Recover the amino acids of this structure.
């Protein structure tokens, strides 16, 4: 992960709507989010969908101003997947 600035300051700026801060944090954590999404995905969820959902979780954490993204990401992704449930037949 690399940041163009202080992660806490970037989180505050992202929470305030600074799109450059959002982009910096998204780039820094994208690989972790995708890997976590693939690792934690339920068997019924396709890999590309799991990666996309994980990126949405990452974006939400960033926009909420989380300063502990790396800690929050796995549990938040897992909770999101549990809330989705398998598709109905």
């Amino acid at each position: 992960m690399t940041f163009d600035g202080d992660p806490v300051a970037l989180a505050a700026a992202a929470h305030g709507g600074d799109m450059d801060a959002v982009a910096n944090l998204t780039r820094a954590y994208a690989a972790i989010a995708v890997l976590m999404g693939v690792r934690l995905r339920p068997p019924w969820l396709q890999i590309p969908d799991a990666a996309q959902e994980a990126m949405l979780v990452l974006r939400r954490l960033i926009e909420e101003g989380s300063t502990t993204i790396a800690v929050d990401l796995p549990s938040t992704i897992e909770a999101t997947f549990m809330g989705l449930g398998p598709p109905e037949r």
